[in-house]
Amino acid sequence: MMMMKRIMYLLLVLISFSVHSQNESLFEQGKEAYKNGNYQEAVDHWKKIIDGGQTSANLYYNLGNGFYKLNMIGPSIYYYEKALQLDPADSDIKNNLAFAENARIDAIEPLPQSFITRWSNNISGFLSTDGWAGLSVAFIVFFATLFLSYYFSSRETSKRLLFTGAMVILFLFGGSLFMAFNTHSKNNRDRNAIIFANRLEIKSEPRMGSSTSFALHEGTKVRITAEDGDWVRIHLADGKDGWAPASELKEL
Question: pLDDT tens digits for 145-162?
Fold first, then answer.
């Protein structure tokens, strides 16, 4: 039995190594194709990696670049947004996303937000949920180190400094933990999607025969608030909402 477990473990390691090597090869082939101006070929290579179950901010970013070069604004914005979810602080992703968004037809003016909401969104946007969680772990380890140093220190001046530092780090731990939960909750609550259709009529009801409320175009970001069969209710940053066929947009 022990021998069988070892053999199975070895097989899993070999399979994992083989898949990783294959994905590395596909990624490099995609980069070479992109460099040579074969953007569709590059996209095809990178999408095979995603189809195999592997994702990363860098992979999504490169896919966004490939689709942008193909003048496919919807998929380009979609993959830049996916990259930004994994690495919210990356300036290259933000810059290229801004370029792609400038190519959209729709210009959505967001409703005014309170100072607290803007502040919270700006702070939480610095890191992903995993990033805030990792920072929380680092802070609590640092706090424990400072507190133990304070506990075993014999000098009064050192004890005061160590205790003050430990309390500051504890406060930062609480803030980063709050941001981790807040970012996680926001990601679960907000079901964002990107319009892929060239032009999409947004209906007043979830049926094709209902009246058209307004129209949207490729690359516009919307928030899904409800579902009814093959239809989804979408909400825009400017307050407008309506119904659209689920097949015409792709959820992030």
Answer: 888 888 888 788 888 888
